[in-house]
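User: Could you walk me through two proteins back to back? I'd like the raw sequence and the structure tokens for each, with a short line separating them so I can tell where one ends and the next begins.

Assistant: Of course. Protein one, sequence then structure:
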Amino acid sequence: MEDKNKDAKDNISEIIDAGEISSDDLEAKDPEHQTDGDNLPNTEEPDLLAENEKLNDLLLRSRAELDNFQKRTEKQLVQAQLYSTEKLSSELLIIMDSLEAAEKAATSQSLKIDDLIKGNTLLLKTAKEVFEKLNLEEINPLNEKFDPDFHQAMATKEDDLAENTVLEVMQKGYKLNSKLLRPALVIVSKKNQKKT
């Protein structure tokens, strides 16, 4: 290998001595001897390469940080969903326990109507407590002004009350915090058409 390098240097020396190529031509071809238009050494290229490398590194780090942020956010979202489901499930277990106790009491030979009524009342109370813990709010608009955002009119009925007053609640509505889950199904008053 050294012989080949020595032979190449000897060949270059012979060509220079013969005048076929000048030492300036060799410098022009040598990347370490690059010059700008005024034959001054080009010092911008290493600076640009270093800056380019720095920017590429910054870009890669930013992408990695964004990917980590997205993964962290997705994990937190899943955790929040699991937590909310867990809370709801544990509260529903209370109602299920009460229903199973009511079913057991209903099959008893010594069942009394008063005991059944008390059990039903207790079950309803337990369900309302669970709803309260879960921020479920009941919509029972009897004798209130009809509100289309929270009520659904199933029928109208002539009455002496002010028009658009809820006369009867067929089914209560519910909302979770401020979000409507189910509108109240109502019968609404309309003006009495009787002529006197």
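----
Protein two, same layout:
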Amino acid sequence: MMIQIWLDACREDLPVIQEVLKDTADIIGCSWPGMDSAGDVIREGIEGSRITFVSAGPLSNAASVLKRYPSLAENISKIIFQGGCLMYGNVHGYAEKNLYDDPQAAEYILTHDLPVMICPLEVSSAYPPFTALKMILEGDMPADVKVCGAHAEIRGQVSAGKLVTDLWSDAKFPVRKTEILVRE
């Protein structure tokens, strides 16, 4: 039996991602940033199911649906987020676009009591588009999984949209539950 996923990504990317994942996952529904009534569509799609929420875009819809319908957290076994960066970004020196576009949503998800796996830019950009997501879902990702504390910088003038972790820090965040893929 294939894993059931809800897919959230930029609308123009959905056909490409669906093609990449077609033999890997049972995609029970799709949404995209800016979609009218995305929260209701997601709620209706995942109620009564146990799914993995896969986001290849900003975490806006995931945060929105969990704020409106907190009990749906029970239906989500994990959130896999293709976004953020550990070193250098693609928006400015410190931020990756998916996290930068809605750092408040990312912070909400990272501090919510749900298992989260982040596939940062350093890992995802080493493969053809969306192939890293396929590899994660198949359990075939040649990267180390590190558990750490993670936050999204939402206030900094220079660092807004930056993924902040305690991976290489002596000081650790009190909650350390986020899985991050690291290529070493």
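The chain has one domain: 3-182.

Let me know if you want the two compared in more detail.
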